[in-house]
Amino acid sequence: MSPERIALIEAFKKQSEGLEKKYEARTHKSDLMMPYRLYRPEATGKLPLVMYLHGGGGLGDDNVKQLGLGNVFGTRVWLLPENQKRFPCFVVVPQTDSGWVKYDFSPDPGPPKVLPGLGDGARLALEIIDRLLHEFTHEQSIDEQRIYVTGQSMGGAGTWHMTAQRPKLFAAAVACCAADTNEDASESLGTPLWNFHGDSDKNVPVTLSRERIAALRKAGGQPIYTEYAGVEHNVWQWAYTEPQLVKWVFSQRQA
Length: 255
Description:
alpha/beta, 29% helix, 10 strands
């Protein structure tokens, strides 16, 4: 909560204004439909791809909300001019209307139960990656060794879920205040991970991240874990303005 750290967040808000307009609106058509946004960099050659998974505030099918509210940090940080200059990349931002993991939406009282298996939201998002890999093959192409996934809250759960379900796809993952999934954390062992949580989070208990990181380390993983004192659920404001984050992400590469 130092003045210097808060200043980074405020500076980001000003510097990133209007960057959402650089995203192209698209729709993925499979057995189900999934709207998504795509940013195409100006650079050519073989380039990385970042997939951002929105939190609960982005739920819907308007192809707009996943870029707004708290999602502005995770969708805009990659588009900042200094980041595109150093690390030009594609960015894809799918939108789900039912979540990324598999849920039981039966009419029982209380929150929906998390079920085993690949969620439809995650499945469609993974299909989008596969389609983009086939679409961009000439002057601009996607480097299959540098595909990254990140998300917050519900999207953080999606990040853990996808790295467990597709362990050899992502070169790195960044999860913020991730909600619950059905997998054991050790199933994400193959993906370098940086996990963030605020210790005052009232929406998703910080113990969930602590237990995941402990399980991953016990299984032999070496995740980075950053826990911010006094920060609540909006940990994404600190995570995506963490000075070393972008450099760390793009330093990771699939073997």
